[in-house]
Amino acid sequence: MTTNTILLVLLSLLIAAGLSYFQYYYKAKSQLKVNLLLAFLRFLSIFGILLLLVNPIITTNNTEMIKPPLAVVVDNSGSIFFLKAEKTASELYLKLKNNKALNEKFNIQSYQFDSEFSLLEKLNFKGTQTNLDVAAKDLKAINRNSLFPTVLISDGNQTSGNDYVYSFDASNKVYPIVLGDTTRVLDLKINQLNVNKYAFFKNKFPVEVFLQYSGTKNITADFQISQGNSVLSKQKVSFSATKNTAVISLLLSANKIGTQLYKASLVSNEKEKNSYNNNKNFAVEIIDQKTNVAIISSINHPDIAALKRAIESNAQRKATIVNPKQINGLNNYNVLVFYQPTTEFKTVFDANKSARVNAFFITGTHTDFGFLNQQQNNLEFKMTSQKEDYLAEYKSQFNLFAIDNIGFENFPPLQNPYGKIKVNGNTTVLLSSKIRNIDTQAPLLAFNENQGNRSAFLLGENSWKWRLESHITNESFEKYDVFIDKIIQFLATNNAKKSLVVNHESFYNSGDAIEITAQYFNKNYEFDEKAHLTIKLINSKTKQTKNYDLLKGNNAYKVNLDGLAAGNYQFTVKELNSNASYSGRFEILDFDIEKQFVNPDLDRLNQLASSTKGKVYYPNQIDALIQSLLADENYKTIEKSNIKRSPLIDWKWLLVFICGFFAIEWFVRKYNGLL
């Protein structure tokens, strides 16, 4: 307390004592013994009130010694085990952790990492991924605004995340301790394989492979891709000390529907320390997109033949020309093309109200627009008997599906009756119409999606001239045929809503994050947050069954199935309240990315040490590293003075005591008849 505060407290004592004496002795008519008690209570009450006003503060000064942090980060991934360095890593960590001199100078922080970064609890070297990037970022966040060194016990091989060399804070030194044998050995490796997850049946899909060689002599190897016992592709590749990489691009045929498993191999007569990285399994899901299209027309027109040829340019499409009075059932068709519909089409339209097959409407000078208005409400037509030629104008903001401008503005005009066209509902325009150079603000080609049903409208006949013009310009029908194919593909996709929607991949690599998500919708197609979803998982080979609950996240239910062994799995997701269910399957490919390495990545560890002004050490140099850390004058213990100010008495309790003293005084006076 300050001198002024002490004086005020003494003054309060005098005032409280003086007032008590004045009231109970100086003015008192009788000198009762009880007056002594009453005077004391009055003294305590007045002194308490004055203490509240003075509010004396006690100041304490504590000195705290803050050691600089030393982060010891240990690689806990599987590659350390495969490089036979797990024992060395544990010994190095314990030697640093238990060093008395280091503990006196530093506050040692122990961490481990594989795919994630965490406090070091127990090293098992079973991590399926190595992400040094997340370790670097978390270290910066933990020791923000601090100057600290980092000892990184690792082989430097990273399998996920951004480049860790640039993730560490350049102002804080990093001292890597290299794990694993740095002696360069001969090694052939499939470094990376790029392939699309999906391909269409009877098409070809590309495969791109990056090969890598470590060695000094010239060798030749065979690269091949096989499926089962069949070799699909094979070629020779040469390597040398200067030519240590190769890129191979090839096309494979998609001849079977479903998930197809392939194996890429790099084979040579040379003896290798690690042959696991000479092979890589991959899978592609082959999709059958076969589509049956009915072109329904009651007239003959060149448009029909041109449309049929364009549709069937894709081997997965079949177009059948039928008369509206002769068509038998719609269940065999994926898309209906109504070419210039009239009242003769009424039977087909009535049948499609229950079949709900997506439709492509093409109008022209023979179309009955009054009938068409009755059958659909996406576009409303008010047409005259006057014919008009309409040019096309491409709308670049169209985003329902990817499509290029194939020169629509240069195509011949389409013919349609003149009139007004009103767009209703969720309709998107790809081509708008112009009469000569005047924009009509009306669509020429438009698409609509309503409650899961899709439709398209081409408002004009003579589109056969477009196909011919495209051939003249490009010397091929391909661009026009692809344009028509895109329309058919959009219409062939059934986007009807389901109550239970489950998202998953057809295959995963071992070590990948395996997450299955699901959404359950009520009858109003609103996401149901009270649903109870479970998944039953069966290993197709062992028949072992596991059951899990799906946990609710943001607008989806999720389950994490990490850690499953390689193999085929069948699963069923079920909503217990409604019994809605979904069944599917996926395959886990046998691929362990942590087995791909034969040496530590010494180059990158040296680059990391150089960029942070640290130094690379080897396990037998651990004592030199300790001496370097102890001798570094940049890391010193900081003496921090903490001044703490606190009230002498808690005002709440003091207020309670004051009220208590006044109450006791009142009762004593009342009991003795002094009131």
TrEMBL record:
Keywords: Membrane, Transmembrane, Transmembrane helix. The chain crosses the membrane at residues 6-24, 36-58. This is VWA domain-containing protein. The keyword Membrane applies.
